[in-house]
Design brief:
Elements: E1 6-10, E2 13-16, E3 45-60, E4 64-66, E5 72-74, E6 77-90, H1 97-110, E7 114-120, H2 129-133, H3 144-147, E8 153-165, E9 168-179, E10 189-197, H4 210-220, E11 222-225, H5 242-254, E12 260-265, H6 272-294, E13 301-305, H7 318-324, E14 326-331
Parallel strand pairs: 12-13
Antiparallel strand pairs: 1-2, 3-6, 4-5, 6-10, 7-8, 8-9, 9-10, 11-14, 12-14
């Protein structure tokens, strides 16, 4: 077995290093690069590359299961947000999926990562790769071959890991398999490395003021508010929500006869009961905040949660789910 070496590039983080004497037979996708924390297995090349400055990510922490809607999901999962780097490696020839994932696991553990979940072959469940690389919206579209990666996977290996470094949390998802398709890059290992670095999104990019909220309510009787933010699975309002809530209070204070129903909405991740409870708790948090922090009469507000019963977009994409996670103000 070829031994991978480690070097420290960032305090506390180890990388797999590519030998200068080993050159990939195929060129990397233009503009792509290894992540500074965890690089490639020696001899592999980058076939697909994608970086999102801030987005959501569902990290699989269990084998394939089915939810109440008979939808295939990981038995356990964690919803993450932050900077997402996705790199699809091909090759090298002559290496097993076990050897590749063991090298990555060793490097991650040496860097201080904790393994959260791992599985192999049938233990991962039927078509496990489809959870991570199934729908077209989840695929990396750099090349024709990257689009078709994991279409006919064999000898699947998977690893999810986590590390807390200073004030940030980093998660890694690693999927390795043999591509048993019929393309020019088939019959060799394919590795999907995804690194999720928790970060606070840029705020203040879109301003919703009291006048705009009022016009929306006057026009349709309700208004969707996207600036009220919560941590995943929590009903605690994040501090950066204060400016939007202040504008809602300004509207109510300027219209003494206006009463509102605050309605919480979620995407369809999780059970119906869970989302009904969470959406109701979040709506109630908004009412309590407006009363306690902005002096709005509590008698002028009521709250309700409808979970994922009233989507405004498809839950099949990240953008659609983001639109469905909202608070709405309904005129009473």
């Amino acid at each position: 077995m070829k031994v991978m070496k480690f070097v420290l590039t960032i305090p506390g983080l180890a990388c797999l290093i590519v030998s200068a004497s080993t050159l990939a037979q195929n060129a990397d996708f233009p503009g792509s690069e290894d992540h500074p924390m965890v690089t490639r297995y020696t001899g592999a090349f980058i076939d697909g590359y994608e970086v999102k400055g801030f987005d959501e990510y569902v990290l699989a922490l269990g084998p394939v299961a089915r939810n109440e809607q008979d939808k295939r999901i990981p038995k356990e999962q964690v919803n993450l947000e932050g900077r997402i780097t996705r790199i699809l490696y091909r090759g090298p020839d002559g290496r097993s999926t076990l050897e590749i994932i063991r090298n990555y696991q060793s490097a991650l553990e040496a860097a201080g990562f904790e393994t959260l979940f791992s599985c192999s072959r049938d233990d991962c469940g039927h078509n496990f790769s489809g959870l991570l690389y199934g729908p077209m919206a989840m695929r990396i579209n750099s090349t024709e071959s990257s689009k078709g990666a994991f279409d006919i996977p064999q000898d699947i290996r998977y690893l999810a890991a986590k590390m807390v470094e200073s004030n940030r949390t980093i998660h890694v998802s690693l999927l390795v398999a043999f591509d048993n398709g019929f393309g020019p890059l088939s019959k060799r290992p394919v590795t999907l490395l995804e690194i999720i670095e928790a970060k606070t999104m840029d705020t203040g990019m879109v301003t919703v003021d009291a006048e705009a909220i009022g016009k929306g309510i006057d026009s349709t009787g309700h208004m969707a508010i996207y600036g009220v933010l919560f941590d995943t699975g929590s009903a605690d309002i994040k501090p950066e929500s204060a400016p939007v809530l202040a504008e809602i209070a300004k509207l109510l204070q300027g219209r003494p006869t206006l009463n509102i129903l605050v309605v919480g909405h979620t995407d369809n991740e999780g059970t119906h009961e869970y989302n009904m409870n969470l959406s109701g708790q979040r709506a109630n948090s908004v009412v309590r905040y407006l009363a306690a922090e902005n002096g709005v009469e509590k008698s002028r507000m009521s709250s309700a949660g409808v979970g994922f019963l009233a989507p405004v977009a498809s839950n099949e994409s990240a953008d659609g789910r983001a639109k469905n996670r909202r608070v709405e103000l309904v005129k009473q």
